[in-house]
Amino acid sequence: MNRSPSPQPPPRSSGPAGGSAPAGIEPLPSGPTLAIETREGREHLVVAVGGPVDYHTSPQLLGHLMSNEVRSVPLVVLDLSHVAFCDSSALGAFVEVLRQREEDGRRFALVGLQPEVRRVMELTRLVDVLPLHPTVADALAEG
């Protein structure tokens, strides 16, 4: 009787793409990614986001907003005009970015909230905490 060897499971790799992380470090959740476009101004950045900001995508956004290149800019405007949904992970990320930027003496603004995103912010009363503006121009005009 001719037996072929039993298939071996693929080797596990480490790092963000492989799913296993070193001890003590939580792996990033797998799932969809965000479209993030950064436009640079004289003393500001506009970070435009497309797609849902949730448990799967908020680590990607938070990583971008907390990068050294972004952290050093005096004003970061987060354009959410192409974000139709956000969950508590997103709200936590927004608050964390605001906290860190204020601690560093830098500013942060959110613009272009879609109705569902605005509703979540109203329900959680973050409209009283986060600097919200209708448009990028309004956020930049505030100075």
TrEMBL record:
The region called Disordered is annotated at 1-31
Similarity field = Belongs to the anti-sigma-factor antagonist family.
> Which superkingdom heads the taxonomic lineage of this protein's source?
Bacteria
PANTHER family attached to this UniProt entry? ANTI-SIGMA FACTOR ANTAGONIST TM_1081-RELATED (PTHR33495:SF2), ANTI-SIGMA FACTOR ANTAGONIST TM_1081-RELATED-RELATED (PTHR33495)
In what residue span(s) does the STAS domain sit?
34-143
Protein name as catalogued: Anti-sigma factor antagonist
Q: Write out the biased-composition intervals (Pro residues).
A: 1-13
Which InterPro entries does UniProt cross-reference here?
A: Anti-sigma_ant, STAS_dom, STAS_dom_sf
Its source organism is: Streptomyces desertarenae
